[in-house]
Specification:
The chain is an alpha/beta fold. The chain has 17 helices and 13 strands. It has helices at 14-28, 51-57, 73-91, 103-114, 134-145, 154-162, 176-189, 195-204, 216-219, 222-238, 247-255, 272-279, 290-299, 314-317, 328-339, 356-370, 378-384, and strands at residues 5-11, 34-40, 64-65, 95-99, 118-122, 148-151, 170-172, 209-212, 241-244, 264-267, 284-287, 303-305, 321-323. The chain has a 7-stranded parallel sheet with strand order 3-2-1-4-5-6-7, sandwiched between helices. It binds uridine-diphosphate-N-acetylglucosamine. The site of uridine-diphosphate-N-acetylglucosamine (UD1) has 20 residues, from α1, α5 and α11.
Length: 397
Amino acid sequence: MTERVKILLVAGARPNFVKIAPLMRALAARSNHFATKLVHTGQHYDASMSESFFEELGIPQPDFRLEVGSYTHAQQTARIMMAFEAVCCAEKPQLVVVVGDVNSTVACSLVAKKLQIDVAHVEAGLRSGDREMPEEINRIVTDSISDWFFVTEPSGLDNLKREGHKVERIHFVGNVMIDNLLYQQRRLESRPPNEQAETLRAQLGQRYGVVTLHRPSNVDDEATIRSILSGIGKVSERVPLVFAVHPRTSAMLERCGIAVPPRVYLSPPLPYMAFLSLWSRSTLVITDSGGLQEETTALGIPCITVRENTERPITLTEGTNVMVGRDPARIVEEAFRVLDGHGKIGRIPALWDGHAAERIVEVLEHASLTSTRSAHSPRLTHFYTIPGNSSIGAGSE
Ligand code: UD1
């Protein structure tokens, strides 16, 4: 029997968990070919941001928990790198798979490449063009060193080609987050109503909207968050809104003593199924999340994005997404358009069909067969050795 290809799959923050669920399933289905281990960096650690996702999405318990927690960007990234390097040295994988654009993504891809391990980036090539966004830096750096690129939409292909990557390494496969969404939606429909969502719906009534906000550019400045909430307050005069509050945002609301308008119902971060049950039956979504822009497009729910730019332009050109910036008047204008029955009608982007993870695994199967790398190659031994007293690292030649 040929030796199986050793993969480390990395997840760190909430938006990663929804992307690795279908990848874990697709890799498990090819366990004769791949030996996959899961690494949870612990970037997100609250039960509501992490454990509940593992349970509901059917993700196996991680093989490694790095438990890094929240710090400044540099400290968080450095802690992930140090802990992940030790895992790579012990495991000697042939491939590290990273998803999305969070600090865990960039930290683990850097570690892997410095150990000469191939990196596959799932959701590669997205660009907002806004280098003030920490995620944009993470995307650019991760793509600049990755070996395999799995792309969700044509803009990703264009960006990667423009940046000079080899076309044979770039694969337009569709969207693993939509794989997860369609899979979980089928499960939701076959179950009794979600209790948590029903409790909220009892307060809200049949017609309601859903709000999420957590981007530093929206929530870290008091005047900005107050201004956005003033627009949201006006919308809530016409339709009740449920606002699932990210820890970063709740900390800010508390610190500044900001009260939300009366028909905006606050909720802690919701488990995936309760949240899906809520937003998938809502009249509109107001958000600054990357993921929700895509998920609303996939289910045809009107989405108003409170950002100046998006790295997911297909949600604007083909989907239900409308970008309004941070102007409260624009939030109200677009929301009223939806409430008046004139919201944008979208269509489903190509390959957002629930099978992206399978396509990725198919490519990797071929890629690893043709790979000349081996975890046992003598030329790598040096990189896996942590010198006695010196700091962790590959050292110089
Ligand atoms: C991160 C990602 C962002 C993603 C978002 C989704 C980066 C650069 N950003 O942003 O792309 O859209 O996750 O949630 O990686 N906190 C908790 N509990 C937790 C996690 C965080 O209380 O489980 C608090 C911490 O106090 C922290 C703050 O939330 O200071 C922000 O967390 P952090 O992981 O730094 O970034 P996010 O804003 O969550």
